[in-house]
Known about the structure:
Elements: H1 2-8, E1 11-12, H2 24-35, H3 48-62, E2 72-75, H4 77-89, E3 95-100, H5 104-112, E4 116-121, H6 131-138, E5 143-147, H7 159-171, E6 175-179, E7 205-210, E8 223-226, H8 229-243, H9 248-260, H10 263-287, E9 290-292, E10 299-303, H11 312-323, E11 325-326, E12 328-329, H12 337-340, E13 343-347, H13 352-363
Parallel strand pairs: 1-11, 3-4, 3-5, 5-6, 6-7
Antiparallel strand pairs: 2-8, 7-8, 9-10, 10-13, 12-13
Amino acid sequence: MTRAVEAVGGINLGQGVCDLPTHPAVKAGAIEAIEANRAAYSLYEGIAPLRAAIAKKLRDYNRIDADPASEIVVTVGSTGAFALAMLATVDPGDRVILFEPFYSYHFNTALLAGAEPVFVTTRGNDFEFDEKELEAAAARADVIVVCTPANPSGKIFSREELERIAAVATRHDLLVVTDEIYEHILFDGREHVSPASLAGMRDRTITISGFSKTFSITGWRLGYAAGPPDIMRSMGILSDLLYVCPPTPLQWGVLAGMVELGADYYAQLLTDYASLRSLMADGLRAAGLRPIVPQGAYYMLADYRPLGWTTAREAADQLLALAGVAAIPGTAFYNDEAAGEHLLRFCFAKTREAIEEANRRMAKLRP
C-alpha cells in the first residue's frame, strides 16, 4: 500500500511510518557522535552506556530488574529483536501462540523460524480473549507472544489479563515473548504492565521494546530485548552474525534522548497522540466508517461496510482510488480472513495537517 499510495501522490495512513518530527536532543546526540567519529563497530549487544540507560528505564518504568551486562541486547529495531528471539528459542515444529488480530511481522517471523502459529482470537471492541481457548492452545504450544499495546487493535492487556496469561504460561512451562514498542502511547489513563514484572515471570519472559515510536525515528532501526542471560547471549551472537551491531552513532542519539528527555516529554507525547486519535476517529465517522477507538498505540481499525464495499481489499483499493488515502485491509491481521474482512487499519502517527487533509478527502465518500 505504501508503494501504491506513493505512485499516486496520496496520503499514507497505512504503514506505521511515523511522520512526526524527531526531538532535537535525539538528533543532536547522533550528530555529535558522527562528528566525534564514533563510527566503529560497537559490541554486538550495543554500547554500554545505552544498555545502562535501558536497565534504568526498565527498572523505573517497567518494574523489571535487568543486568545491563548480561540481560540486555540492543537490536536493529524491535522487529529485529523479535526475529532474534524466534531464531534463538524456537525449533522447527514448535508452536507459537499469537493473539488475533496479530501484527503480521510476528506471524511471518514465526514462520521464518520454522514455527507453527497457533491462534487465540480476541473479540469485541475491547478485544478480549477467552481463557479456555488460551488454555487449549497452550496445551500444544511452546511460546506465547503478547503485544501490548497491540498493533493493529490498540488493545492494552490489563494487569488481570496478563496475570491470567502468566498463570497459563507457568502451568504449561511456556516462554513468553512480549512486544512493548508502544508502551508510552496509552490513552484514557490506562496503565502499561510488562509481563516480566509479574510474579514468577522474569525468568520465562523476553521483553522487547525500542525507540522508533517514542522518538519518531522509525527509519533509525533501534530496539532492544531484555531477558534471561542464556537467551540474551544467544540473541547477541545471532545479532553479530546477521548484522554485526546496531548503528553506533544512532545508539548515541537515542541515549541522549533517554538521558535528556523527562516526564514532560512523555506527557506531551500522550497529549499529542490523544489529539490525533480524536481527529482520526472524527474523520472516519464523518466519512461514514465506524472506527474502533484504540486504548493505546497509534492505529485505528474501522468498519468500512456502511460505504457499501464487500471485501477489505476492495475497500482499501477504492479508498486509494477515490480519495487518494491508503489504509491496510483487516485481513492482513487474521489467520481466519473472514474475521478481518470488514475492517481497515489506519495509522494516525502523522502530522495534524496530513490527517485533516485525509479527512477532507474521505468525507466525499459518504453516501
